[in-house]
């Protein structure tokens, strides 16, 4: 294998991943409610384009950017838990897209990152927290996963031509 070609591919991948991380930071500034923002769209896209592991890294960093710009309202340990749960969401989103289709993936991503992720904090914060967060988080989750699927499909179609 030609090492020059491999090096160019690695540099291109690293550059694209860095750009997606930067887009997550920008999305972190577009807040919907509290720490709910458009930080995860690049992570969901990355999980489809590069694979679930890279997507998990991008989406986790995206949430950390959002928490940082919000002042870590739930505390640093809880935001790390959220970042990990978002990585899990991106992982299963990617798997659902590859095994089934974009519709199943959007449903999986929305449900995991919306109601399921919010349930994690019921023992600590109670059902009031769940009721307060589940609607805005589910709506934002749907927007992020849906837009990621649409963008990926558009790019994939363009690349195949």
Automatic annotation (TrEMBL):
Pfam families with a match to the protein in the record: ECF_trnsprt
Superkingdom per UniProt: Bacteria
InterPro entries associated with the record: ECF_trnsprt_substrate-spec
Record's keyword annotation contains Transmembrane: yes
Segments traversing the membrane: 14-33, 45-68, 74-93, 100-123, 129-152
Keywords associated with the record: Membrane, Transmembrane, Transmembrane helix
Transmembrane listed as a keyword: yes
MF term (GO), any: transmembrane transporter activity
Protein name: ECF transporter S component
Organism of this sequence: Thermoanaerobacterium thermosaccharolyticum (strain ATCC 7956 / DSM 571 / NCIMB 9385 / NCA 3814 / NCTC 13789 / WDCM 00135 / 2032)
């Amino acid at each position: 294998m030609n090492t020059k070609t491999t090096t160019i591919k690695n540099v291109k991948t690293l550059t694209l991943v860095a750009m997606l991380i930067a887009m997550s930071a920008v999305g972190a500034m577009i807040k919907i409610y509290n720490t709910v923002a458009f930080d995860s769209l690049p992570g969901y896209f990355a999980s489809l384009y590069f694979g679930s592991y890279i997507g998990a890294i991008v989406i986790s960093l995206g949430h950390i950017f959002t928490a940082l710009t919000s002042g870590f309202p739930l505390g640093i340990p809880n935001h790390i838990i959220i970042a990990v749960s978002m990585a899990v969401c991106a992982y299963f989103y990617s798997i659902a897209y590859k095994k089934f289709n974009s519709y199943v993936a959007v449903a999986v991503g929305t449900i995991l990152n919306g109601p399921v992720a919010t349930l994690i904090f019921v023992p600590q914060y109670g059902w009031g927290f769940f009721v307060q967060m589940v609607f805005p988080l589910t709506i934002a989750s749907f927007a992020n996963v849906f837009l990621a699927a649409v963008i990926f499909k558009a790019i994939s179609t363009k690349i195949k031509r």
